[in-house]
């Protein structure tokens, strides 16, 4: 199997490795309560973004676009820009029952967005094979959420100190800050929002 991988595919795998490393660092943070692990988790995701940027460039440069590469890219993106940001939100204090529901929704939106892109990319492509625009926001835009969490961690405003506090609805806790994940997920699956692809 590995012999079938192109250089771009290996770079895509590095994206997935960085996202997985971020999740594992979060789990270690939850076990040890040592913020160095949380910072390590934050630090992994910019590397994932760099690998995500490079894999497409390398594939086009080497003229090695493939369905395998497209599917690998989507799976790696789901780990790095879907699951990892949701796990970071949970670990930084958005761990109530309704928070969890929002985070599951966010990941589900990421799955739907990536599947839709894979299914429609060929139909949206121009004569050169390039897709002119994204329908909905690309999943790597979730790094903006991660940046917010990193700033709050730096300001020591995580856990019980999260901005906007928490509310209880139907006996379940909700941190209003988690609504940024609701908005981000909804923008990913929007069919009316079109963003030019550069």
In short:
This protein has 198 residues and is mainly α. The protein has six helices and four strands.
* Overall structural domain count: 1
Low-confidence stretches: none
Strand residues, percent = 5-15%
Coarse shape: globular
- Give the end-to-end Cα distance, rounded to a whole number of Å: 32 Å
Question: Mean of the pLDDT scores?
Answer: 92
The multimeric state of the shown protein is single chain
CATH architecture group name: Up-down Bundle
How many DSSP-defined strands?
A: 4
Radius of gyration: 18 Å
How many H/I helical runs? 6
Characterize the main sheet: 2 strands, antiparallel
Structural class: mainly alpha
Work out the helicity level.
Answer: 55-70%
CATH class group: Mainly Alpha
User: Could you please say which CATH topology applies here?
Assistant: Four Helix Bundle (Hemerythrin (Met), subunit A)
Order of helices and strands: HHHHEHEEHE
Structural overview:
The protein has 198 residues and is mainly α. The chain has one domain: Four Helix Bundle (Hemerythrin (Met), subunit A) (Up-down Bundle). 65% of the residues lie in helices and 6% in strands. It is built from 6 helices and 4 strands, in the order H-H-H-H-E-H-E-E-H-E. The protein has helices spanning 7-32, 35-61, 67-91, 97-124, 143-154, 179-188, and strands at residues 133-135, 167-169, 172-174, 194-196. The strands form 2 sheets. The protein has a two-stranded antiparallel ribbon. Strands 2-3 form a two-stranded antiparallel ribbon. The chain is globular.
